[in-house]
Amino acid sequence: MAVGGEENGGGVLRQRQRGCGCSKADFFPEESFASWEAYGRALRSTGARLADRLTARSLDATELHEVRARSGADMKRDLTWWDLAWFGVGAVIGAGIFVLTGQEARDAVGPAVVISYVVSGVSAMLSVFCYTEFAVEIPVAGGSFAYLRVELGDFVAFVAAGNILLEYCIGGAAVARAWTSYFATLLNHHPNDFRIHATSLSADYSRLDPIAVVVIALVCAFAVISTKGSSRFNYVLSIVHVAVIVFIIVAGLTKADTSNMRDFTPYGARGIFAASAVLFFAYIGFDAVSTMAEETKNPARDIPIGLVGAMALTTALYCILAVTLCLMQPYTAIDPDAPFSVAFADRGMNWAKYVVAFGALKGMTTVLLVSAVGQARYLTHIARAHMMPPWLAQVHPRTGTPVNATVAMLVATAVIAFFTNLNILSNLLSISTLFIFMLVAVALLVRRYYVTGETTVADRNKLVACIAAILASSVATATYWGLNKSSWVPYAVTVPAWLAATTCLWAFVPQARAPKLWGVPLVPWLPSASIAINIFLLGSIDSKSFIRFGIWTAALLVYYLLVGLHASYDTAKALAAEYAAGRVENGDAKPSAAPM
């Protein structure tokens, strides 16, 4: 079966251009869906196919060439480090900094909130390093989906990517509804004044938000017209946003009182780390920038500068904003909902609340824009692998953007934003994001220490044992922390166990691969630390988020077993049959080169 392709004279598969049709062939072109009888045969083979896909690890070249070609047209390579840096700033600095800082400073950590921001920033920077190496080596639109597919296999990649798409939809809907609230505040209205109250609906879904839908639609238009145009719009808004933040810092420091910082750590070390788990979510968004690697002119230079530079600037601004707030007011007097606005009002600068609201609007707009660009590219690459309908993988030949995927994701986001109360959305914390950051760090260790056909069985087994020990010790530390016990004895076991596992990996397992262009320093220490910190932060998340994670993951598994598994299996086998050299993906490779 040919999968939308044909061979040219050199025997290389070439993707046929398809229009944006909506026929069955656009959604289910695979052999397993040719008829009900074929589908029945596929379902009866689910066990064997799942066993194959569980061990199927894609290749760098496959993601860079064959998989990318399934979109028909290429994305335009016109982004530079400047674009990526401002995309990073725009993705990360939203309204959260104006709310989370006050909430945690008052209730969890006090003036030491600045230390919490440093801890969160270090954790985020470790993840940035891992993402950067992958984005430089595999510059495709799939982001973490492509990285996990190469190192941990199809199955893990699909479960992880499905969860992050849900987070994008929920996060985008929450930001869009918050946009309406801040817009109303800016015009001296109550946040619900611009919403329609549908009394026949449940209270949590009765405040209909047409403004949120309009904002999402406008963002969608920008995202599909041009990535470079979206970049220009983003960095103009981001520069304005940074200017507003600088103004808040300068104006706030003119009202500083150093006596407010005397009781610096009223809640102790536990307060610092508990707050850092919450404040970590103020850094989420940079992963969307990695999905733009395919559109970057010089990935080896632009991605490290753009991603690391954006995170460094963001961390610095967050820390200075936190210090400014705590200097303006005693931490006990900070308002948890509108900390900067109330602080300025208490210091005789009531007019400054409009500047804060304006800055928040700018921040939320850029977050929505970068989220729209990133989530569409995640979905595009998933569809390229035929785990989602390949219609979603199509790139428009004129704009060079994934129009179908962008519209599909933003329609889903708009539906959620139109009906769902902000409190419901905000309770669904980003457990999936931390989970994927942890998996990317694991994948980086696998990438450095395991190469199919080269790594010996003994070294492979030692690698598995070390990674398992790192994960187990990290989970044990996070679990005990979550139990809120005061004894230090368990930490005296779990932390040295993590240190010993990482030391064994460093000392006894040889690296099988060196980065070609840019690499994470201090491997395995930095990826191992990223694993530990992300799992530690997972241990601080509420039980409702884990329940939601479990329910959504179960739904993903049902879809995968009924549709995604068979479509991706057929695609991999069809491509393998069309190449004289053999398999494109090495899930059931030669016995002497069995995957890990």
From TrEMBL:
Organism of derivation: Zizania palustris (Northern wild rice)
Keyword ATP-binding in annotation: no
Family: Belongs to the amino acid-polyamine-organocation (APC) superfamily. Cationic amino acid transporter (CAT) (TC 2.A.3.3) family.
GO CC terms, sorted: plasma membrane
Protein name as it appears in the record: Cationic amino acid transporter C-terminal domain-containing protein
Coiled-coil intervals, chain numbering: none
Subcellular location: Membrane
Topology class, membrane: Multi-pass membrane protein
Molecular function (Gene Ontology), one example: L-lysine transmembrane transporter activity
Annotated TM spans: 79-100, 112-134, 155-179, 210-226, 233-252, 272-293, 305-331, 351-380, 401-422, 428-451, 463-482, 488-508, 520-539, 545-563
Chief location category: membrane
Lineage, uppermost ranks: Eukaryota, Viridiplantae, Streptophyta, Embryophyta, Tracheophyta
Classification via InterPro entries: AA/rel_permease1, CAT_C
Domain of life: Eukaryota
Domain Cationic amino acid transporter C-terminal: residue ranges: 518-568
Keywords per UniProt: Amino-acid transport, Membrane, Transmembrane, Transmembrane helix, Transport
